[in-house]
Amino acid sequence: MAKFLSDEFSIVYAFKPADNQAGVDGDSINTAYVSHIMFLLQSGTVTGNAVLTVKSGASDGAKTTSETFYYRTAGADQAATGADVYSAPTSATTLTLTEATYDNQLLIIEVPVDALTAGQPFVTLNLSSAADAHNSSCVAICKPRYGGATAVSVIA
């Protein structure tokens, strides 16, 4: 039988494709079940400067603490040569998504779960409402703590 990546990772549809200029919170991920989270933020048109944060909280949807995350930017716009080559990881607690850098790009955001604030196992990706336009969507790929990625839901 074939082996599938979707059997090895939990895949979360964090937020749907839309103009997220009004801001958006992704689905909260319960890190009791995962040891690492990688968000893939796909942006189309970006006008203005939305601010990205990774928040943790004690319950689903709680955004109590801004957590440190690591991000990597694509080497070129979607479909261009180099779009699948990424920068070295940079740590941050906030990231301003400017049009010049993030328009038509894929942004990788990684969250090392073992560094989260104690007692706050729920992680939520947040985009502020500071942009004039931010057409984007996001998927999270989570490394499960236990075997059988499809056995337990990681969202509430």
Describe this structure in words.
The protein has a 6-stranded antiparallel beta sheet with strand order 1-12-4-10-7-8. The mean pLDDT is 91. The chain is globular. Helices cover 3% and strands 49% of the residues. The chain has one helix spanning 99-102; strands spanning 10-19, 24-25, 29-30, 34-48, 50-57, 65-66, 69-73, 90-92, 95-97, 106-112, 122-127, 131-144. With 156 residues, it is mostly beta strands. It contains 1 helix and 12 strands, in the order βββββββββαβββ. The chain has a single domain (9-144), classed as Jelly Rolls (Sandwich).
Strand order of the largest sheet: 1-12-4-10-7-8
- Range of strand content: over 45%
Name the shape in a single word: globular
- What is the name of the CATH topology? Jelly Rolls
How many distinct helices?
A: 1
The helix-strand sequence is EEEEEEEEEHEEE
Structural class, from secondary structure content?
Answer: mainly beta
Gyration radius, in Å: 15 Å
What is the CATH top level name? Answer: Mainly Beta
Could you give the topology of this structure?
Blueprint: E1 10-19, E2 24-25, E3 29-30, E4 34-48, E5 50-57, E6 65-66, E7 69-73, E8 90-92, E9 95-97, H1 99-102, E10 106-112, E11 122-127, E12 131-144
Antiparallel strand pairs: 1-12, 2-11, 3-11, 4-10, 4-12, 5-6, 5-9, 5-11, 7-8, 7-10
